């Protein structure tokens, strides 16, 4: 790999954006395809499939075989709320291959004793997001039941195009949430992206089961996620 291509690839990785290095097997020539460029690329279908699966491999083309080497940002789950559900979700997320972070300004809940070996931020979401903003490879799970904590990260997640956005609460609670988000200027289409009640509908009845339901939804959303151009249209509408 030449220096210019490597620097361009590292730039995409630093910004947590997907990229694919396309190498012609016969000649060894290489080129970089950024996620934002996929739809215009002649190998768009194969590259999109590679990015969705996260698996590199050889593809047969009219010009011969090419190797698609995919580089994806580590998918992460950000849970807003250091509650019992988060305690169950954290180890499950790691087993499933997701990085996970917990944000909660309530220091009585956000403690290392309750969340050992987990990236924990015992401060307000708006403060954390200044240094660690959301991106399209982030799933945001809002589970505090407190609008003062929940609403800011929900708005940020929808505007950023996070691949999954879910919020805990009853239909009545969510209806009030929709009113607040509408007043904040979000479009109905953007608000409709929130999965509420959060998690797959499996009849979950306790924190552990709710965590399983959330993780199931996150995995489904990640594997079926839209590509950059589609997400861009949604975030512009927000």
TrEMBL record:
Pfam families from the UniProt entry: XdhC_C (PF13478)
InterPro entries: MoCofactor_Util/Proc (IPR052698), XdhC_Rossmann_dom (IPR027051)
Ranges where the XdhC Rossmann domain occurs: 78-217
Listed PANTHER family: ALDEHYDE OXIDOREDUCTASE MOLYBDENUM COFACTOR ASSEMBLY PROTEIN, MOLYBDENUM COFACTOR INSERTION CHAPERONE PAOD
Protein name: XdhC family protein
């Amino acid at each position: 790999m030449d220096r210019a291509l490597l620097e361009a690839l590292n730039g995409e990785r630093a910004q947590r954006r997907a990229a694919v290095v396309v190498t012609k097997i016969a000649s060894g020539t290489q080129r970089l395809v950024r996620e934002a460029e996929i739809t215009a690329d002649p190998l768009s279908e194969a590259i999109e499939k590679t990015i969705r699966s996260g698996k590199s491999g050889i593809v047969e083309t009219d010009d011969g075989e090419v190797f698609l080497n995919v580089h994806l940002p580590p998918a992460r789950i950000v849970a807003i709320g250091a509650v019992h559900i988060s305690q169950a979700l954290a180890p499950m997320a790691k087993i499933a291959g997701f990085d996970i972070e917990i944000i909660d300004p309530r220091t009585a809940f956000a403690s290392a004793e309750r969340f050992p070996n987990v990236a924990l931020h015992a401060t307000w979401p708006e403060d954390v997001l200044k240094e660690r903003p959301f991106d399209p490879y982030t799933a945001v799970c809002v589970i505090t039941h407190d609008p003062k904590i929940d609403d800011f990260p929900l708005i940020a997640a929808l505007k950023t195009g996070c691949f999954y956005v879910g919020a805990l609460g009853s239909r009545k609670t969510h209806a009030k949430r929709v009113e607040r988000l509408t007043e904040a200027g979000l479009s109905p289409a953007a608000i409709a992206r929130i999965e509420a009640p959060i998690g797959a509908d499996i009849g979950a009845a306790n924190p552990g089961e709710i965590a399983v339901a959330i993780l199931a939804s996150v995995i489904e959303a990640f594997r079926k996620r839209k590509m950059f151009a589609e997400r861009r249209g949604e975030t512009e509408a927000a």
